[in-house]
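Record type: monomer structure entry
Structure origin: computed from sequence
Chain ID: A
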Amino acid sequence: MNTSSNSNYQPPYTITPEILNRVAAISEAIGRLTVLTDRARALRLRRINRIRTIFGSLAIEGNTLTEAQITAILDGKRVIASPREVREVKNALSAYERFDTYKPAAEKDLLEAHRILMSSLIDDAGIYRRGGVGVMAGRQVIHMAPSAHQVPHLMADLFGWLAATNAHPLIASSVFHYEFEFIHPFADGNGRMGRLWQSLILARWNPLFADIPVESLIFEHQAEYYEAIQESTRETDSAPFIAFMLRMISATVTTSAPQVNPQVSPQVGELLAVIEGEMGREALQAILDLSDRKSFRERYLRPALADGLIEMTIPNKPNSRLQKYRLTDRGRLWRAQRRHP
């Protein structure tokens, strides 16, 4: 990271073959996940993953509340825990509620998010630090951040670069995260803010990242997270941190995808391959060149319905003459995986 204001600042990072391969793999995995269009299911996932995100990000900072306790707080229930830890959770819930309103390249939004995230926890919530700060590992200082008077210039450079860069968002978000942690612009809350802002940058590339809990996986690999930051600092190149973050994102995207059993009968596979939008029985039989109604129902329709791969448009009237069938999330994902194994 440089130490003087420069509107053309370019953070130092190298694009390695691993980074390129990770970007390609994540992009493909995200493409598969976008077949999930069922809104009710998406909202359920958003709630679950938002809780996991907040749990992971706060646990990295030493918060001991469980996912169940965070869920209880979200539901307005009282939990037995330290007031500070409860406040951290409530603040994080408030900050993530405003997630969709923040703009990644807007410095004022970052300051506002920090103000919400650290409200009643530190005196300088939403304000860049006024003193020196070091990152500690036990009693050892592992990183001495730039002096306080440099912070506004360094952050202006970083936001200027983010607004202008044409780097892939997977790379740009990781670079921003590393540079943010290097500057350590706040008296406290830098880790959770860096992770929040990386998620925000990614979510503006693909909305699915608003609900993919990368933080929970970072928590499971906390030592590697800090080691990647240190290694990038030693090398004056954020490539080690970029590679680490992309490994975490890749693993999270993979585990976020619902599991689909690929073992379907050839007949069901044929049915899934031809359904487009909502289609009636006669249209489906015609496109499959099938004349036997009973055979179609027993070998194609019923198994596909039983496996949750298709659904009725009028489920409470299965024999309606207006009945049509459409793919479910599971069916769309099965078909996507067949096309792009």
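Annotation 1: The chain has two domains: 17-256, 266-339.
Annotation 2: The chain has a mean pLDDT of 87.
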